[in-house]
Amino acid sequence: MTNPLAGRPIFRMNGIGNEILVLDLRGAGVEAAPAEARAIARAPGLRFDQLMVLHEPRQAGADAFMRIYNTDGSLSAACGNGTRCVAYVLGRAGEGDALTLETDAGPVRTWRAGDTRFTVDMGAPRLGWREIPLATDASDTSNVPLSPPVQGAPAAFSAVNMGNPHAVFFVEDPQTIDLATLGPQLEHHPLFPERANISFAKMIAADEILLRVWERGTGETRACGSAACAVLVAAARAGLSAREARVRLPGGDLVIAWGADDHVLMTGDVELEFETVLEARFFTEPDA
Q1: Which pLDDT tens digit goes with each residue over 3-32?
Q2: What pLDDT, in 10s, does the model give residues 234-288?
Q3: Of the listed 21, 68, 224, 232, which one is catalytic?
């Protein structure tokens, strides 16, 4: 039997290097399963950091409900770079320059800031240890001891939830970090019951931050919008930065602003690489 996703159009995009696929299933009467997300990631030319799958909105006033898959088929509640890509695809289809998109973390507003530039309201950061979540009580989530320690990792980190859990480590030079080794160890550290996105950041100036990210369920990525937001919040809480800064990632820059209303705004560019269709053969290989 042919997979119901076969023949569906899919958009290959990137948000400053973050590899994004957008799959619009509104009106199709089908959903994507984790095994299908993994199959799409294995398909030639369709490897992704996040797969943004659109469904009918659940609430009045929303334009779509987004289900966000990582490469391993696990779910993410937030992806800022992916949300900007969705806004581009829907805007290209004539659905407007200002959208409200539902996620498991709540509604997300996004609007056009230029031809290929979009702003996403990522909402307010969650800073309580239960909200992040951490496995143990941490009275100060801006400075959490890494216990048990991990060889090669700093002794403490800042914890922030931006729709998904983030651990931010400030270091002298993120480029010297063995991310392939430390990333998986820290993602699965016992302090993080839901795993965590791991960031290594360097303050260049009060309004400029250098960042490398290991994404939960994906691995090292060229960009991560929610991580950039988490890093700005962590830096501002520690008195290292202003409440607006340019965050430099391997794929490009994002402008992050933590407003007086407690909401974090992320602004950056997107690129449409190509549009194709899902082929039936993508779903016939045994799931890894």
Answers
A1: 999 999 999 999 999 999 999 999 999 999
A2: 999 999 999 999 999 999 999 999 999 999 999 999 999 999 999 999 999 878 6
A3: 224
Q: Which of 13, 79, 249, 255 is catalytic?
A: 79
Is 79 an active-site residue?
Answer: yes
CB 255 within 8 Å of CB 242: no
- Determine which helix (DSSP H) or strand (DSSP E) holds 232, and give its type and residue range: helix 225-237
DSSP reduced 3-state for 180: helix
Tokens representing 215? 């994404």
Instruction: Find out if CATH 3.40.190.10 is the number for domain 9-123+270-283.
Output: no
Domain ranges of the chain: 9-123+270-283, 144-262
Cα separations in angstroms, 28 against 4, 56, 103, 234, 281: 9, 9, 19, 41, 20
- Sequence-separated (6 or more) residues with CB below 8 Å from residue 79: 18, 20, 50, 52, 68, 225, 226
198-222 pLDDT per residue, tens: 999 999 999 999 999 999 999 999 9
Cα–Cα separations (whole angstroms), residue 96 to 15, 86, 93, 216: 19, 12, 8, 32
What dihedral do alpha carbons 180, 203, 15, 39 form, nearest 10°? 20
Topology agreement, domain 9-123+270-283 and domain 144-262: yes
Arch. (CATH architecture) of 144-262: Roll (3.10)
Give me 267's structure tokens: 């602004």
Q: Peptide bond preceding 107: is omega within 30 degrees of 0, i.e. cis? A: no
Orientation angle between helical segments 225-237 and 80-92, nearest 10 degrees: 130
| Tokens describing residue 116 | 């290929």
CB 194 within 8 A of CB 129: no
